[in-house]
Amino acid sequence: MGNKDIILSGKNIVKDYGGNIVLKGLDIDIYKGDFTVVMGASGSGKSTLLHILSGMDSVTSGEVFYKVRNIQRAAVARAVIGRPGRNDVNKKGKITAKSTGVCKININVCYKTAKNSRRRKKLMVNVSVKPKEDNGLQTFKIIINKKEFDAELYNTDAAKEFYKLLPMKIKMNELNGNEKFYYMDKAFTEDKGKAGTINTGDIMLYGNNCIVLFYETFQSNYTYTRIGYIKNPSGLAEELGKGDVEVSFSKQTMEKRL
Fold first, then answer.
1. What is the 3-state secondary structure (H, E, C) of 155-214?
2. What confidence category does residue 173 fall into, taking pLDDT thresholds of 50, 70 and 90?
3. Hey, how many other C-beta atoms are within 10 angstroms of the C-beta on 183?
4. So what's the pLDDT on residue 7?
5. Phi-psi map region of 115: left, alpha, beta (phi>0 left; psi -120 to 50 alpha)
6. Closest CA to 200 of 175, 217, 179, 220
7. Residue 135, SS3?
8. In the chain, how long is the greatest CA-to-CA distance?
9. Cα separation of 56 and 34, whole Å?
10. Rounded to whole angstroms, how far apart are CA atoms 186 and 203?
11. I need a surface site. Which of 44, 46, 92, 144 has the fewest CB within 10 A?
12. CA nearest neighbour of 200 among 177, 223, 184
């Protein structure tokens, strides 16, 4: 680009929205006097990039420089080189509290006015922290030939309905060399979806009353409602064997859960 000055640059920009990576290690230099166009398909991150370069949004990692100033190092309430009059900005985040109650959070906001003078504001936010409800549906145990397996439930209606029936012992039948099944007398609430990858230790509902315990990992196009899964299925296939088998399901005691 000859001797042109870089007026705006981004180095290794990453933007991750809860696992959805929109920008991945992007580098960009914008030179003084150039007319720059950002092109791409819908959803490719054009608007996200512009918001980050203007200081209206933050990066997950990386740096953005306006001339020599790193504009990602401060909480900026408007763009450093943004549009006059636009002073609103939305930020999302998560705070993990160690105890319940009400706390106050002080936020220092630094911004520039349309006349390029620096201003600072202090905001105070009251946050109420409530205890997480323990509905007792998180964990349960499975016993096969006296060996215990710890399991966790999915957040489905069928899982909650299944948990209410515990403890119970059922004789599960062999099928296909990868699963055991049992038809319940009760119908459960279905929330079916394509299984895709079935993992060893998955517990699912087939139809509205067939409980299935898988002891192999494989791909499937069948639809199931998720009930739960064994956290450490090591040795599960050996305990289940190749024939029919008795399996016990019971609620986890508080001592075990802790």
1. CCHHHHHHHHCCCEEEEEEEECCCEEEEECCCCCCCCCEEEEEECCCEEEEECCCEEEEE
2. very high
3. 11
4. 86
5. alpha
6. 217
7. coil
8. 80
9. 22
10. 17
11. 92
12. 177
Total-model pTM? 0.48
Find out whether 158 and 190 touch, Cβ atoms under 8 Å: yes
Tokens of 135: 């509905």
Q: Is 4 helix (H, G, I), strand (E, B) or coil?
A: coil
Among residues 159, 165, 173, 161, the alpha carbon closest in space to that of 247 is found at: 173
What amino acid occupies position 46? K
Token readout for 175 is 């099928």
Report residue 229 as tokens.
Answer: 């899964």
Distance CA 214, CA 198 (A): 8
Q: Is the pLDDT of residue 162 over 50?
A: yes
Coil, strand, or helix at residue 240? Answer: helix
Q: How confident is the model at residue 191 (pLDDT cuts 50, 70, 90)?
A: confident
Three-state DSSP class for residue 161: helix
β-strand partners of 62: none
Give mean pLDDT, residues 90-111. Answer: 55
Average pLDDT, the chain: 78
Contact 179, 213 (CB under 8 A): yes
Q: Which of 149, 206, 146, 201 lies closest to 181 in space, CA to CA?
A: 206
Buried b (16+ CB within 10 A) or exposed e, 24-51: eebebeeeeeeeeeeeeeeeebeebbeb
- Could you give the residue ranges of the DSSP H alpha helices within the chain? 46-54, 157-164, 236-240, 254-257
